[in-house]
Amino acid sequence: MKQFLLLLHEDIEKMGELSPKEMEDLANAHMAWAEKLAESGHLISGDGLQEKAVLISGENAVVKDGPYMESKEIIGGYYLLQAENMDTILEIAKGCPCHIWGGTTEIRQIMDMEDYAESNC
Predict the structure, then answer these.
(1) Which of 11, 106, 105 is nearest to 67 (CA)?
(2) What is the sign, positive or negative, of the torsion defined by CA atoms of 118, 119, 120, 121?
């Protein structure tokens, strides 16, 4: 079984305009979706992420405050899922509640030892 990380990109301005009821509805949609994923055996973990971040870069380990994306989007959360292949994950990810308010989902497959050997990493 392969593992996939779903990064949830959300529009920070649009999220800030949601009413408390809309935010509650969105949180409930995520909880229901996660429960469905757990029942199907695809969910490994998932959480929301704080908006603020810290970035360490360069040889001198310079620390900068974030977020860092070059747009008005933030990574608002993630799901770590498992499935036999990318096609299955694509179908699952289409149901992610982050899409309700214009968010997008980035899917990254977690490399396993065979992948490292093939890529010469």
Answers:
(1) 11
(2) negative
